[in-house]
Write a structure and sequence with these properties.
Largest sheet: none
Structural class: mainly alpha
Keywords: ATP-binding, Membrane, Nucleotide-binding, Transmembrane, Transmembrane helix
Organism: Lasiosphaeris hirsuta
Radius of gyration: 26 Å
Oligomer: single chain
Shape: elongated
InterPro entries: ABC1_TM_sf, ABC_transporter_C-like
Number of helices: 3
Order of helices and strands: HHH
Distance between the termini: 43 Å
Number of strands: 0
GO molecular function, one term: ATPase-coupled transmembrane transporter activity
Protein name: ABC transmembrane type-1 domain-containing protein
Strand content: under 5%
Helix content: over 70%
Length: 140
């Protein structure tokens, strides 16, 4: 999430650097921006890979626990009460629905944090942009 928030700042800084003439801007700043770009985008890729790795790992653990619990309950009930084959047939479908629900629940809390952080950051960025616009405006 931090890398995604760094991306607009990087692009803003990069555009500011490219807007300057080559005589004014230092090549070291360009090399720093290249390194920062590599760091930000590699960080986005690595954090997404780790997120989905741990997400799938947790979902497989939940799937194993749910399947064993349903199987245990199915084998413990009396045969005259329920049909075992129908319960076991629907077991995998029900477990998959629960897993999909967990995936959506994970996205809800992560997006809630991201939206609240963006709502907090947005007014500060607007103030900064207005301040910069007032500084660069021509005197009347």
């Amino acid at each position: 999430m931090a890398f995604n928030f760094c991306q607009p700042f990087l692009i803003n800084t990069l555009l500011g650097y490219l807007a300057k003439s080559p005589e004014i801007s230092s090549p070291n700043n360009g090399y720093g921006l290249m390194g920062t770009t590599i760091l930000v985008y590699a960080g986005i890729a690595a954090s997404n890979a780790l997120y989905w790795y741990f997400q799938e790992r947790a979902m497989y653990m939940v799937r194993g626990v749910l399947a064993s619990a349903v199987y245990r309950k199915t084998t413990e009930i009396k045969i005259s009460t329920a049909d075992n084959s129908a319960a076991l047939t629907l077991m995998s479908v029900d477990v998959e629905r629960v897993i999909r629900g967990f995936l959506r629940a994970q996205a809800v809390w992560a997006n809630a944090i991201q939206v609240s952080l963006a709502c907090w950051l947005h007014p500060w960025l607007l103030l900064y942009a207005a301040w910069r616009a007032l500084q660069s405006s021509p005197e009347s």
